[in-house]
Amino acid sequence: MTAAAPDRVPVIAVTAGEPAGIGPELCLQLALRRAWPARLVVLGDAALLQETATRLGLHLALRDYRPDNAGPLPGTLEVLHLPLAAPATPGRLDPANARHVLALLDRAADGCLAGEFDAMVTAPVHKSVINDAGIAFSGHTEYLASRTGTARVVMMLMAPRAGGWLRVALATTHLPLRAVADAITPDSLEQTLRILDLGLRERFGLAAPHILVAGLNPHAGEGGHLGREEIEVIIPVLEKLSAEGMHLAGPLPADTLFVPQQLDRADCVLAMYHDQGLPVLKHVGFEHGVNVTVGLPIIRTSPDHGTALDLAGSGRADCGSMAAAMEVALSMARAGPPHGDMRPLGGQRSVGVLAMVRAGAAP
To answer: How far is residue 201's CA from residue 338's CA, in Å, rounded to a whole number?
Structure first.
């Protein structure tokens, strides 16, 4: 993936996600939301998108995607047609369409790797129905890492807050709670922090990111009385990487980490597990939250919510988080490709982040 040239309009692939969910509607709303400085190419079933637009009264002309299309054109949406395996009904999951959902991701990722697309934005998928189809699937993050041949990536979510963004990355992602402690090893934690530090510098323009690291146990282990993971795993890794020049603080008790006094001095929080960090982030900005996969050789963002089957087909789905994901993807695409240098940089913290973040504005 290469950065979009200054004189070329970026091309962003948008996958329509679970066809029975709100994804198709979100893609249409996204195109109507504003005049984007990019070509939006929705990957999905063209007939389903047209049916959705007609049912919801969304006035948008669909045209077939071709790499050499002119654009963007007002009132039109480019569609890269990938057919459903079975008819889709709003709110009713069908395992027959699981491979269709994955085909959307495959085509978008392959297009990003080839330089056809500058970034991909993914509408929500439904993990359980993909697994019901007999396909092992734990989420976008892990699937795209495998598809791009990336050994390790980091899931990071971000939401607007006063003066900028709250960013929360995860040391572990979709694991049962009883498996979390075993998954946090010195090697895995070190790799996560290196990828996160590099991603914040190269994708978000932070010269020396300041990362707050949560403890795993209540009260960050309370000196070993509530668990020894902080003493035996987390602290040695933080000491090693801090000696190399990374700006890290922790391990900090998670119940007092997400307070303004702490967040105001940080660029990102690393939580040890999914439900340690994400409930706070979604409380802060659920309607404008963005999921970013850090460490991929391509740019991938998504809204921070699920398929909302209860809203599918109603016209009441909120496009705010999807639009925020588009904004972040565009900003990251303009920043250029990663250099792949894992060495930490020293020096003073930079406030020169990407345009949207620099302005401190919500999408």
So the answer is: 9
What are the E-state strand segments in the chain?
11-15, 39-44, 61-64, 76-81, 119-122, 154-161, 164-170, 210-214, 247-252, 268-271, 290-294, 300-303
pLDDT at 358 over 50: no
Q: Are strands 290-294 and 154-161 parallel, antiparallel or unpaired?
A: antiparallel
Q: Which residues of 314-340 are buried (b: 16+ CB within 10 A; e: fewer)?
A: eeebbbbbbbbbbbbbbbbbbbebbee
User: 69 near 108, Cβ under 8 Å?
Assistant: no
Q: How far apart are the first and last CA of the chain?
A: 25
Are 133 and 96 contacting, i.e. CB atoms less than 8 angstroms apart? Answer: yes
Per-residue pLDDT of 82-102, as tens digits, reads: 999 999 999 999 999 999 999
Domain coordinates in residue numbering, the chain: 11-359
Cβ-based neighbour number of residue 74 at 10 Å: 7
Q: Record the tokens describing residue 352, joined without a space.
A: 């020169």
Q: Is the pLDDT of residue 32 over 70?
A: yes
pLDDT in the model for residue 285: 80
CATH 3.40.718.10 assigned to 11-359 = yes
Q: Are 306 and 124 in contact (CB under 8 A)?
A: yes
pLDDT score recorded for residue 174:
85
If you average pLDDT over residues 136-146, what whole number do you get? 92
Whole-structure pTM value: 0.85
Q: Which of 302, 26, 355, 22 is nearest to 165 (CA)?
A: 355
Nearest to 293, CA basis, from 135, 131, 105: 105
Residues 1 and 297: beta-carbon distance below 8 Å = yes
300-327: per-residue pLDDT in tens?
999 988 999 999 999 999 999 999 999 9
Q: Give the β-pairing of 210-214 and 268-271.
A: parallel
Do the Cβ atoms of 307 and 17 come closer than 8 Å?
Answer: yes
- pLDDT at position 304 is 86
DSSP assignment of 31-43, as one string? Answer: HHHS--SSEEEEE
